[in-house]
TrEMBL record:
Its main location: membrane. NCBIfam families: ATP_synt_delta (TIGR01145). This is Subunit delta of ATP synthase. Keywords: ATP synthesis, Hydrogen ion transport, Ion transport, Membrane, Transport. The keyword Transport applies. It is found in: Membrane. The keyword Ion transport applies.
């Protein structure tokens, strides 16, 4: 904990000197192409919805997930991980699922179309199929989205995707650590984070996967998310603590 605190203090010092942010561009299908694929006329759905009436993941959960998870979203994540593991397309599926979620987050109409419970399932599957035709997707990814649509679970996609990625990392002996900073970390700071986390947090044989997120709202310091552990060493958290103490003091006066 002391080592993480030193890293957080160093980030605070850096944050007070600069708030220059670096924009990282994405790739893949654009939000515009997703919108056009769903909301403009397109060739009729080539495959009947009836072919997806049976769960394509049925019987794929015999592989024991490397991490125990609970809840409905975990069930879908485990089934997807099992199917992708058998087909040896773990990374492909992760990339494809993230791509569709990115499109969904970037297009309000596309998102509303998928989440609207009044839209018939057949229409949602037709819309998804048109999006899939605009790029290259594995059958496992396609069937996963079709089943999620059929079962009315598309709103749970972000959680399922997050849990799936955790299973992918765990199956390789990797541990995902997300570090949130107010500004981009310098190469030296990032290397120091990796060193401290590897020495103080990871178990023997585990490999670190570091994900750095930028959130200017935290003002400075760092936030560490390691599995279910959330360690908030941000300036924002300190300010909230001071505000709460002041409220308590005023309330008791």
């Amino acid at each position: 904990m002391a080592a993480l605190l030193r890293l957080s203090r160093a980030a605070c010092a850096t944050a007070t000197r600069t708030f220059a942010l670096r924009c990282v561009g994405g790739s893949g299908l654009s939000s515009t192409s997703a919108h056009a694929a769903v909301f403009q006329p397109a060739p009729a759905f080539k495959q009947p919805f009836a072919m997806y009436s049976q769960d394509p993941f049925e019987g794929t959960t015999d592989l024991e997930p490397p991490v125990k998870m609970y809840g409905t979203s975990a069930k879908y994540a485990a089934a997807l991980w099992s199917a992708a593991t058998k087909a040896k397309v773990l990374d492909d599926v992760a990339t494809e699922v993230a791509q569709i979620i990115e499109l969904k987050n970037g297009d309000e109409k596309f998102s509303a179309f998928l989440d609207d419970p009044t839209v018939p399932v057949e229409k949602k599957i037709e819309g998804l199929q048109k999006v899939f035709e605009a790029g290259k997707f594995t059958d496992i990814t396609k069937n996963f989205f079709f089943v999620m649509a059929e079962n009315g679970r598309l709103e749970e996609l972000p959680m399922v995707a997050e849990q799936y990625q955790e299973l992918v990392y765990a199956s390789r002996g990797e541990v995902l650590v997300t570090v949130t900073s107010a500004i981009p970390l310098s190469p030296a700071q990032e290397n120091e984070c990796k060193k401290v986390l590897t020495e103080k947090v990871l178990k023997k044989g585990e490999k670190l996967v570091l994900n750095v997120k930028i959130d200017r709202k935290i003002l400075g310091g760092l936030i560490f998310d390691i599995g279910e552990k959330h360690i908030d060493m941000s300036i924002e958290a300190r300010i909230r603590k001071i505000e709460n103490l002041l409220r308590e003091a005023v309330g008791s006066a």
